[in-house]
Amino acid sequence: MVFFNKDEQLENLGNQILEATWAKFPTLASNQIALTWVVYDPPAPVNTGGALTPNAFWSHAVRGFSYRGGERIYPASVVKLFYLVVLQEWLEKGMSQTSGELDRALTDMIVDSSNDAISLIVDILSGTTSGPQLTPGPFETWKYQRNIINRYYQSLGWEEMQVINVCQKTWGDGPYGRERAFYGEMFENRNMLTTDATARLLHSIVGGVAVSSVRSQSMMNLLKRSLNPEELPQDGEEDQVTGFLGSGLPKNSQIWSKAGWTSTVRHDAAYIELPDQRPYLLIVFTEGKEQAKSREILPFVSERIAQAVANL
Fold this sequence. Notes:
The protein is α+β, with helices and mostly antiparallel strands and 312 residues long. Helix content is 41%, strand content 13%.
């Protein structure tokens, strides 16, 4: 049972958009894309600066559409969204203390999607560190500590979180030592997310009820993206707009997002506000080497969704 109500209008529009996407990109297989789309009808309960209590927010019904929304997919850097929320929870409860280095790592992790920064964040969240392989006893303790992030999400009681795995750092070249052992022989313990679980977490952030209204707002500030071409990197470096959902939007839109990409996946998770339209969440995951290289698929889906929202 997902957190949004299935809706016939969005179901029809979502399926039409997927069909158009497959027609435009014939090498994109039906099992290489997953999508969750949630629309906020007026009065929208999101981006209110924390005006609603958690009870009022969660009792506010929203409608949505998902395609393969419960499929477990390697999330790349979208997982950083999950570590962002846990870190705010730890800070709120006094389990971690703020510092200049932690603030710097947090900003770099979300704004620039730094893999180096996430290493410090995960160490702080779990009380573990990377390094040489460990003997069995200490390694069991290490693994238990690292899984504290999974235990946090399972404790929320959200059905979407029961199938995810969020306990690994993200890497450039890959894990070594105890980190490689923790991945499992066949990488069976790597991070896994669904678009529905990602949507639920982002829904809580934009609703102002992730940890607290103040902390939700600080997370929103980190996730805000500029669509101004002059403010995007000019050196050909990957940013989190070009080739992602932000590329398919009118330039006077607003977007809060976290993208993720590797040589085999290309994902984005976004909360979007179009001028004078209903705000919405859009999470799109794509898999496959060819799809990962494509800078056209996510913008195409985003543009079609934006057009659909304008006609709701």
